Structure prediction request, 472 residues.
Amino acid sequence: MAELKTDILVIGAGSAGLSVAAGAVQMGADVILVEGREMGGDCLNYGCVPSKALIAAAAAAQTHRQSGPLGIAGHEPEIDYAKAQDHVAEVIASIAPVDSEERFEGLGVRVIREWAEFIDDRRVQAGEYTITARRIVLATGSSPLVPPIPGLDGAPYLTNESLWKLRDRPDHLIVVGGGPIGMEMAQAHRRLGSAVTVVEGQRAFGKDDPELAEIVLKKLRAEGIEIFEGAQAEAVRGEEGAIELDTSDGRTIRGSHLLVAVGRQVNTDGMSLEKAGVERTKSGIKVDASMRTTNRRVYAIGDAAGGMQFTHVAGYHAGVIIRSLLFALPAKTKTAHLPWCSYTRPELAQVGLTEAQARKEYGGRVEVFRFNYDENDRAIAERETDGLIKIMVVSGRPVGASIVGAQAGDLIGFWSLAIANRFKMTQLANMVVPYPTISEVNKRVVGAYFSPRLFENPTVKRIVRLVQRWIP
Ligand SMILES: Cc1cc2nc3c(=O)[nH]c(=O)nc-3n(C[C@H](O)[C@H](O)[C@H](O)COP(=O)(O)OP(=O)(O)OC[C@H]3O[C@@H](n4cnc5c(N)ncnc54)[C@H](O)[C@@H]3O)c2cc1C
Ligand SMILES: NC(=O)c1ccc[n+]([C@@H]2O[C@H](COP(=O)([O-])OP(=O)(O)OC[C@H]3O[C@@H](n4cnc5c(N)ncnc54)[C@H](O)[C@@H]3O)[C@@H](O)[C@H]2O)c1
Prediction:
């Protein structure tokens, strides 16, 4: 047994833990990082990176099919699913050095590859090490939630952890769950040549604006994906290659593979949180706005905190708690400016309030402005005209933005900045974007706010007429 002492102990080397460890050590703190599994956590190994890599392979396949209208003979591509999975593995491998033990040891972090468990309110056991820390950061992330559907435990099923090991393309993939994981993987597999059926208990893309979600669903259905909403998965039977799934609306769906994507559960098993006085809620570790747990020395960030579960949110939490960890300064997290995006094609992105949420919160004070992609010249040139931006404005400041369409994930950052800084629409109007870009949709929706104020305003018209009479 070895006794170690440190300023900051970080448990979990995913996006959240790595960001805290890198920031803290480079600013002079003594940092120990404990990881029980793979450096890089979910995002690198089982989440964002592999999913976006597979989506890229699927998009390449789809380009072949859709290029006819551009004068390039469209045809059904030859797809080597195993090679597409090799591409996924190569992408992970090329990013892995950034998250590696070697890099972090090089920065001065002591990395221990063990599972951590609390001994008491300031001490943690990790393998042969007993670590005493001034501050402890729980960045233990989340794992796929496997619901208690009768028969599921006896049937073969995939999750976001096992999907990347498949070598043979599923003939017919049944996806349970119409959230971002389910819908991204449904479209990727359809484009790679599988038949795909999605079964969603409530509404697909349930956290997004339904009007915009519908634009994506229409597109996915047009690509041949069967999507059943209001269809809870109720029973599973079968074996490798022959799965049957019963739904609450009376269907029986038959397929070759089953992907379970019904949400996440926070990783705290085996950590003896109670020994440290760290409480849990139903969704995750209980934290206040400073990301402090019920033990003032212990913080929980990223997926472990059970709020918005995204890599950029994990990084944001890390940035906020660094202030309080290193300088003992008060620092609180906010959520209004935190965006998300589902990387289906078209992409579906949101920041701040949706239209329904804004109307509920602000009633008649909310104004909604829209601009369609089919009026954007670049979108027309690239035949990417399925899209819409909607912004919600209260007292001259945006409180929410919803975008569906090409590059929605890139475009939403502008609205995050605007909301984070409480920019006024008059400030946003100062932006000039290059023509022709998709980002003109941001400019044009700001224009939609000013158009009636300028072009349908009798006072403006009167002043213009007066001035025109007087100037030489
Ligand atoms: C399929 C999929 C696609 C996704 N796509 C996106 C996307 O496009 N964009 C986006 O923003 N987000 C995406 N996400 C979400 C994103 O992956 C997570 O929000 C992010 O990984 C959370 O980071 P984290 O550091 O909080 O947790 P994790 O990445 O889960 O890391 C936690 C780490 O802690 C370790 N650990 C746990 N318990 C212990 C212990 N007791 N001792 C030692 N180590 C421990 C785990 O082994 C793990 O490595 C996706 C998720 C999935 C599943
Ligand atoms: N692009 C991204 O940023 C991205 C991509 C993938 C995942 N993620 C992160 O991972 C999290 C988890 O994603 P997810 O898609 O697994 O979860 P989710 O919670 O977002 O969606 C799960 C869906 O499954 C449905 N469901 C639950 N039980 C069901 C049942 N028995 N039958 C049918 N449907 C059922 C729910 O109604 C819900 O719509 C996301 O919330 C997000 O934080 C992000």
Observations:
- The two ends are 91 Å apart (CA to CA).
- Residues 11-17, 34-38, 41-43, 46-48, 51-52, 115-116, 139-142, 160, 181, 267, 271, 302-304, 309-312, 314, 343 surround flavin-adenine dinucleotide (ligand 1) (CB under 6 Å).
- The domain at 340-455 is CATH 3.30.390.30 (Enolase-like; domain 1).
- Residues 48-66 form the longest helix (19 residues).
